[in-house]
Amino acid sequence: MSASDMNRREFIGLTAAGVAGGLLSLGATASGDMRYDPWDPRKPLIVTGKALRIQPILMYRVAQKREATSWKSWGGVQCDQTAASEAKRIAQEW
Predict the structure, then answer these.
(1) What b/e readout covers 32-59, taking b as 16+ CB neighbours within 10 angstroms?
(2) C-alpha to C-alpha distances, 29 to 21, 34, 35, 67, nearest whole angstrom
(3) Distance between alpha carbon 70 and the CA centroid of its chain, in Å?
(4) Which of 23, 28, 54, 85 has its CA 20 to 30 A from that of 13?
(5) Which residues of 64-77 are buried (b: 16+ CB within 10 A; e: fewer)?
(6) What is the pTM of this model?
(7) pLDDT score, position 12
(8) What is the CA 55 to chain-centroid distance, rounded?
(9) Mean pLDDT of all residues in 15-40
């Protein structure tokens, strides 16, 4: 039977049979030799990889006064002197 001889009903029937066969074979292998391990919230989590190391970064911008606008940022670093003291404090921690 060639593709041009197949009608729509035969195509749908063969497709459904193929999908059903594939699903049945997947279900048989999944339930046969694999163990189902449900999630247990009391069990500790699996830790993979290295521990995350947080490194400080100091980013700031000296605000320039502009008329009729909100020109200051919300951070505590508003000038170069404050930035220098903050950088020194961070360097002493590491």
Answers:
(1) eeeeeeeeeeeeeeeeeeeeeeeeeeee
(2) 13, 8, 11, 72
(3) 36
(4) 28
(5) eeeeeeeeeeeeeb
(6) 0.39
(7) 93
(8) 21
(9) 74
